[in-house]
Amino acid sequence: MKKNKIAYVALSADLLHHGHMNVISKAAELGNVVIGLLTDKAIAKYKRLPHLDYKKRELIVANIKGVINVIPQKSMNHKDNLKKIRPDYVVHGDDWKIGIQSKDRAEVIQTLKEWDGKLIEVPYTHGVDSSSLNQSVKRIGTTPNVRLSQLRRLLAAKEIISINEVHNGLSGLITETACIKTDQDLSEFDGMWSSSLTDSTAKGMPDIEAVDISSRLSTVNQIFEVTTKPMVFDGDTGGKTEIFNFTVKSLERTGISAVVIEDKIGLKKNSLLGNEVPQSQDSIKNFQEKISSGKRSQITNDFMVIARVESLILEKGMNDAIKRAHAYAEAGADAIMIHSREKEPDEIFEFCKLFKESDKQTPIMVVPSSFNTVHIDEWKEKGVRIVCHANHMLRSAYPAMLKTAMSILEHGRSKEAADENCMPIKEILELIPGTK
Ligand code: SPV
Ligand code: MG
What we know:
This protein is an alpha/beta fold and 436 residues long.
């Protein structure tokens, strides 16, 4: 090792493998190693949230032989850190010569020229990569505590998160694994929504809190068996405050990250019915008490109680919606869900603007089922933090199943349905790992 030389290595260091060690030991031959450790935010921008948070990753890399310092690297771009520490070398795997990182590579070379620094590239280690390690880790599963804490970590690391409705193991698996990779980034769902509407509907029951909490939790447990992503649970009205306190503990124990409760009382009907059916809103004071009491009941710091404002659904006006949202946040709600059944997003946009004028902190969650034309980037611009696709797995499964049932009846055989609507038997046998 050459004295007084600095070798800089940028790393996520989440699933460390011998490929990373090759890079670090090359750097250690060249000088004192400074690790630019990518922050959770920097990683979440282009791939999934790391399994280990920054502090844990920092502890690991700080103890690797040759490493004298670990500093945060706040984006994929090396430039700011390089200018700060002016290293003699940057050491990196040679796989970034092509693909999305090649621009970054060119900039590193350019920046190093300013003080005669050099880029040293280590041949890529074949046969191991972080994506397949990540899949193996996912196959092992997760624990309730790790899963629970993920929602708050995601909110801290990402500007906006997107969750998808799940009502059984299979819709859970789809939400866990569906992914679109482009050169620029990776798009996948951050978490799951346990919808009262679709959990009830999947059981052939009306969405009126008739499916009790034990049955709802049994669905959740089936989903948790085969997934690792965090879940937001639709808690309907939360029921009586004294009972909601127990619900919070049960949800937390299961590893659910957040419960959404809506400010309605009496027999709950689905919000998308609006005033077509009789529905009553709770008083602000009562609902505040329910929120605070739920917050007092939770054991961990990570669990979230999200208050859902039904004023726009019940046509009580924007002032009422804003007044209630602030009152619920004051009572301890960790986020506000604002709902609407308008086709246009205008009243939700207006709510976001007005609410944020006096509360920039409390996250806003939206459920764009009727106002579904808004792109996620536009929600981001409006300051929304959680977008929930609340029912689309079930709404797409049901018509497909009905079509198949009708086709079998119509043709007196299954050939037409199988040819037109069904996945091949071979594929379904390969769909679930472990079937063979
Ligand atoms: C659900 O998914 O059950 C919801 C959202 O509560 S909504 O159906 O739009 O009311
Ligand atoms: Mg519901």
